[in-house]
Specification:
2 domains, 14 helices, alpha/beta, globular, five-stranded parallel beta sheet, 14% strand, binds 2-keto-D-gluconic acid, Rossmann fold
Length: 328
């Protein structure tokens, strides 16, 4: 019996390919080539499923060109690369990888906050450049982390993980803003207080962005919002590029309107705004918040389990548009 054909768009762990090969005729990209859109479309011909990462855009045009496609399994919790309404309209299911990366990503958010506030990257570059020839009282003096006010914009699972770390590990006063308020029980567990966005901007010593990207959150942190922050504040973005207006942030950093920023995601990544590259008070990392070996294995496995779950057994684990299942 011929097996259904799927595409794994990017390199994954060899065991993920071996697992998928038990159920599917797998076309993979273990060389991790960067395919053009046309190459992706061509490789998707005749496929019923695809394992994507945040780099592959699934939209109406792609769906129209690949009418056999039934499932797009994103190996990411964020799914702004999916046009979900267009997928639903065509009866194509989308899945993501929630939960398995929550704690790892929250760890990284905290690491980036610490590196930014305590000027770790900047001071390391100074040392490596051979510029360290004496101790000085104000050398790389940064901002206090323990006991300070931690602001969180977007209070989903990762935001809550950061709140717990701040409140319980560092004695921080945690405030947050989100579309919807947490239950009193969750607020108590995270020791987090709900505030309006303006109060969050004005009060946070460290502001961490953990909200999903959408038309609504595009440039949620622009010039006007940055102007409301404390001049001593740090801003950390581990959510998505495009939530911050990178050009406006570079101007705010140059003008010392805020003290520093830690960024793991960028508008138009992997390109980084040249004005950000020129700032010394910014820590820049290449979208690695979920990058530990166990977590990346768990993400790949969950994406693969969704492919097998849906295409073989009709039961996806983490569907984004379950209404597609009802329509069948
Ligand atoms: C991924 C992420 O590594 O899960 C997400 O939303 O941003 C990262 O964990 C990236 O999107 C690749 O798929």
């Amino acid at each position: 019996m011929t097996q259904p054909a799927i595409l794994v768009a990017r390199a994954v762990f060899p065991e993920t390919i071996a697992f998928l090969q038990q159920h599917f005729d797998v076309t993979h990209n273990q060389a991790d080539e960067v395919w053009s859109r046309a190459e992706l479309l061509q490789r998707l011909q005749g496929k019923v499923g695809v394992l994507t990462t945040g780099s592959e855009r699934i939209d109406a045009e792609l769906l129209a060109a690949c009418p056999g496609l039934k499932l797009c399994a994103n190996m990411a919790v964020g799914f702004n690369n999916f046009d979900v309404p267009a997928m639903t309209a065509r009866g194509v299911l989308g899945t993501n990888t929630p939960d398995v990366l929550t704690e790892t990503t929250a760890d990284f958010g905290f690491a980036l906050l610490m590196a930014t506030a305590r000027r770790i990257a900047e001071s390391e570059h100074f040392l490596r450049a051979g510029k360290w020839n004496k101790w000085a009282i104000d050398m790389f003096a940064g901002a206090e982390v323990h006991g300070s006010t931690l602001g969180i914009l977007g209070m989903g699972r990762i935001g809550q993980g950061i709140a717990r770390r701040g409140a319980h590990g560092f004695g921080m006063n945690v405030i947050y803003h989100n579309r919807s308020r947490l239950s009193p029980a969750l607020e108590a567990e995270c020791k987090a207080r709900y505030v309006a966005k303006d109060e969050l901007l004005a009060s946070a010593d460290h502001l961490v962005l953990v909200l999903p990207y959408s038309a609504e959150s595009h440039h949620a942190m622009g010039a006007a919002e940055l102007a409301k922050m404390k001049p001593t504040a740090t801003l950390v973005n581990i959510a998505r590029g495009g939530i911050v207006d990178d050009a406006a942030l570079a101007r705010a950093l140059q003008a010392k309107q805020i003290a520093a920023a830690g960024l793991d995601v960028f508008e138009g990544e992997p390109k980084v705004h040249p004005d950000l590259l020129a700032c010394s008070n910014v820590v820049l990392t290449p979208h690695i918040a979920s990058a530990t070996v166990p977590t990346r294995r768990a993400m790949a496995q969950l994406a693969a389990d969704n492919l097998v779950g849906y295409l073989v057994h009709g039961k996806p684990l983490t569907p984004l548009n379950p209404e597609v299942l009802k329509k069948k």
